[in-house]
Amino acid sequence: MKSDALEHLVNEADQIGIKLEMVGGMPIWEAMPGVRHQREVRRIELSIKRSPVGGQDCGCLAFSDVPIRFPEGSFKRPDVSVFCREPDEQDEAVTLLPEAVIEVLSPGYEDKDLKSGVPFYLAQSIKDVIVLDPRTNEVRHYQGLSERLHSSPVVIALTCGCSVTV
Predict the structure, then answer these.
(1) Is residue 79 part of a domain?
(2) For the domain that residue 134 is a member of, what is the CATH number?
(3) Considering the domain boundaries, does residue 6 fall inside one?
(4) What is the per-residue pLDDT across 126-162, written as a single tens digit (0 to 9) for each?
(5) pTM of the entire structure?
(6) Is residue 20 situated within a structural domain?
(7) DSSP string, 96-149
(8) How many Å apart are CA 163 and CA 73, to the nearest integer?
(9) Torsion of CA 107, 111, 113, 115, to 10 degrees
């Protein structure tokens, strides 16, 4: 599907309360998230900052629900994306890959984030993938082949030199 057509379809879906993504040519949708989900996303986004021990020069810019066009053509909208610099695109899908993504699970859509999302992000060389289940406070942090389990709230040092409280 052409980039412009997909972005138009995503905008139309937003109008009727559906969050639409395209991964490997397959459409994935979910209902717009509820209050608990949005509250957690906002809290996480506001917690992102440069780590005092971080060695890299990262701007630690966080954006929620920003559309990202991946090099192989997939289109996703992570709950929170962390970038070291401002993306060039301001009004359309971003092509700059984030340093880290954070997903907050919603009831009924756990497989979308855990079974589909995590492997996809790691295959795209996203350095840190974090998944929060706000009902159990379980936090999963993936870096390459490793997975760490935490209990929220926890401060996590990201590979890029930022920290986040999940």
Answers:
(1) yes
(2) 3.90.1570.10
(3) no
(4) 999 999 999 999 999 999 899 999 999 999 999 999 9
(5) 0.90
(6) no
(7) SPPSEEEEE--TT-HHIIIIIIHHHHHHTT-SEEEEEETTTTEEEEEETTEEEE
(8) 29
(9) 160
pLDDT for res 55: 59
Range of the domain at 62: 33-165
Q: Amino acid identity of 66?
A: V
Number of domains in the chain: 1
Q: Would you state the pLDDT for residue 119? A: 96
> For 85-125, what is each residue's pLDDT tens digit?
999 988 889 999 999 999 999 999 898 999 999 999 999 99
- CA distances to 10, 28, 118, 150, 151 from 141, rounded to whole Å, are 28, 23, 10, 8, 11
Question: Is residue 87 in a domain?
Answer: yes
**Are 103 and 109 within 8 A, CB to CB?**
no
